[in-house]
């Protein structure tokens, strides 16, 4: 396709790429790098200490989490988005990853705008929130990509969807291992909605070893972790803190299964694809995107509750780890993800000329 000038607008909470945890930031980094690899000219609007081969433009020297900024982040993200839209004539398309923050400026943009919806969408119960009001107003005025089909079903807002594009990973980052060790893994941000308690409970009842890896970003999550902590004995159940990419690969590839008992409607759980890329099957609750990502009975098990998760743990050896890797190769790579975005960019740009 024609080489494009593309603006990528990132949220400022974490650097691009994130030093450890940060699903959205990982995706922005992968998209940016692959677009550059394909010959496109990319400008990244992100925190000043981000590391990228793209042209970096920033309004804030460090990520907001590093600066220990909480309530202030919305105004800074708005300024970041405004910075991108002030230079609209420099681009063929603007790709917004900041949700409603970037949408506030899209109506005045002469350059076509695409917004990837990375998070759970606000529903009717949030009708009075700024996010709901903004997204409702712009829902038909610009272009949107969802990251799973399930994501679309949890809001009454009728977005102008151009496509659904699954998040992709770099297969080179994850080593296939046909012969795992004897332990389970739970990995992610330590938060009530991620179901850590359920994973620990299932491992305890199954008499299986469980390694927990994750970060804690706020007081509420710390309180939740303290409620789970008495179950972590350092022997059967271990907590090793947050891990980087190298340690994550080692941890996942040697696990016999990853537990993903999400109890919220997660739009896309990246850890599921990362685990399967190493050959490790995933046992996940039937919530959000889980049934779209796990091929039930082939690359893991989709279960309804703790009881079914415990049963699935006992038959995890029946899963062919080669099938797990193939599933990711066929559906969840960076290349497939960026193929999708190139296709969408071209469609939106051509439409704007008519």
At CATH level 2, the architecture of the largest domain is 3-Layer(aba) Sandwich
Strand order of the largest sheet: 3-2-1-4-5-6-7
User: What coarse outline follows from CA principal-axis ratios?
Assistant: globular
How far the N terminus sits from the C terminus, by CA atoms, comes to 19 Å
C-alpha Rg (nearest Å):
20 Å
Order of helices and strands: EHEEHEHEHEEEHEHEHEHEHEHHH
* CATH topology group of the largest domain: Rossmann fold
Provide the descriptors you would attach to this structure in a database record.
Rossmann fold; six-stranded parallel β-sheet; 2 domains; alpha/beta; about 350 residues; seven-stranded parallel β-sheet
Describe this structure in words.
The chain is 36% helix and 15% strand. It is an alpha/beta fold. The chain has two domains: 5-168 and 333-353, 3-Layer(aba) Sandwich (Rossmann fold); 171-331, Glycogen Phosphorylase B (Rossmann fold, 3-Layer(aba) Sandwich). A seven-stranded parallel beta sheet has the order 3-2-1-4-5-6-7, with helices on both faces. Strands 10-9-8-11-12-13 form a six-stranded parallel beta sheet, sandwiched between helices. Strand 8, helix 5 (196-206) and strand 9 (210-213) form a beta-alpha-beta unit. The model has no long low-confidence stretch (mean pLDDT 93).
Tell me briefly what this model is.
With 354 residues, the chain is an alpha/beta fold. Helix content is 36%, strand content 15%.
Write the layout of secondary structure elements.
Layout: E1 5-9, H1 23-37, E2 41-45, E3 55-57, H2 73-85, E4 93-96, H3 100-106, E5 113-117, H4 130-138, E6 143-146, E7 161-164, E8 184-187, H5 196-206, E9 210-213, H6 219-228, E10 237-239, H7 245-253, E11 257-260, H8 270-277, E12 282-285, H9 290-293, E13 300-303, H10 306-314, H11 321-331, H12 334-353
Parallel strand pairs: 1-2, 1-4, 2-3, 4-5, 5-6, 6-7, 8-9, 8-11, 9-10, 11-12, 12-13
Helix pairs in contact: 1-12, 2-3, 3-4, 5-10, 8-11
